[in-house]
Design a protein that fits this description.
CATH superfamily of the largest domain: Cyclophilin-like
Helix content: 25-40%
Radius of gyration: 20 Å
CATH class of the largest domain: Mainly Beta
Number of strands: 10
CATH architecture of the largest domain: Beta Barrel
Largest sheet: 8 strands, antiparallel
Order of helices and strands: EEHEEEEEEHHHHEHE
Number of domains: 2
Number of helices: 6
Distance between the termini: 6 Å
CATH topology of the largest domain: Cyclophilin
Mean pLDDT: 96
Strand content: 15-25%
Low-confidence stretches: none
Length: 249
Amino acid sequence: MAKVIIRTSLGDIRVRLYDETPQHRDNFLKLAREGFYNGTIFHRVIKNFMIQGGDPQSKDAPMGKQLGAGDVGYTIPAEFVYPQYFHKKGALAAARTGDEVNPERRSSGCQFYIVTGEVYSAGKLTQLEKQMSQQQIQNIFNDLVVANRSKILDLRKQRDNAGLMQLQEELEKQTYAKARELGEPKFTAEQREAYTTVGGTPFLDNNYTVFGEVEEGLEVADAIQQVKTVSGDRPAEDIKMISVEVVEE
């Protein structure tokens, strides 16, 4: 089981990488061995949410420089192992671009975040389940639209409004049939226990790849999330990753 130490200017964070997400695990190990992360900063820090780093453009970046768009020229296919792995406090997950430009929810090849999150009440989790159900329906429909994109474009070119309406009705039927097949999203007992005690960010579940978790140094992540930030959620004083070292494979 692979383990890595992220040495920061505020202390060390030891993380365990999941074998069930092999592409993300192997990529993170590769970048760590190459020294890719050394000197980068946690460029996006939001209290009670997460701390994000891994942008290569953040090395020695002057204050005021827009960060968050840096990459390594490739993305990684989503590896959702849900609900086994979820966004509890301390989860290590891959950042990515939004669904509108990334419907497959592929991960950034280098940027990652560590969840700090917040504690939720049981009632709030139930409310979130209803929102997740609505989001699931929207995601299914969006996927069907992408799959039928060429047909939709052809109907638009032909100005066949009746055909478009018929296709929309058919896609809606398929959407609700698929939703019934999948069942309504529900948090597991393990998720409810975690989210109502240590906390996390449950609204990100099954949308971003969780590929590891903090084993030691969660207090360092907590310290990072508390720092003063400026525009773009960047810390007012840089919090550097001095090194990211592979300690076990």
